[in-house]
Structure formats: structure tokens, C-alpha cells
Amino acid sequence: MVNSSAVQEKCYTHLSLAEREEIAIALEQGRSRRSIAASLGRNPSRLENV
């Protein structure tokens, strides 16, 4: 039996236009994807295809 309180549902969300713009600007400034992800509160792997 699975304890329902221990199971977390994953919530997938797309990057917003504002986040994409912020990422583009930060990349142009030479910031790392890891630091950009941290400032957005996102997982660094989320920025791989941006």
C-alpha cells in the first residue's frame, strides 16, 4: 500500500516569455546556466534547450 501523503505529484510548467527573455539576456552577459536557473528558482536541466 502506498502512503498518499508521501507521494508527490510532479508539476511541469513551461518557461514563460519573461523567463525566456531573462535567460537570453543573462546568457549574453556570460552568466552560467546554473546561476540563471538558481535566480529563476528552476532546475538547471530546464534551461538545456533554451
Concise account of the structure shown:
The protein is an all-alpha fold and 50 residues long. It has 2 helices and no strands. The chain has a domain at 17-47.
Keywords:
single chain; 50 residues; mainly alpha; 40% helix; elongated
What would your notes on this structure say?
- This protein has 50 residues and is mainly α.
- The chain has a domain at 17-47.
- 40% of the residues lie in helices and 0% in strands.
- The protein has helices at 17-28, 33-40.
- The protein is elongated, with a radius of gyration of 15 Å.
Mean pLDDT figure = 84
Estimate percent helicity: 40-55%
The profile of the biggest β sheet is: none
Unreliable stretches, pLDDT < 50, 5 or more residues?
Answer: none
Roughly how many Å is the radius of gyration? 15 Å
Q: Strand pairing plus helix content: what structural class?
A: mainly alpha
Helical segment count: 2
Secondary-structure element sequence? Answer: HH
Principal-axes geometry comes out as elongated
Number of strands: 0
DSSP strand (E) fraction? under 5%
Distance between the termini: 40 Å
How is this fold's topology laid out?
Blueprint: H1 17-28, H2 33-40
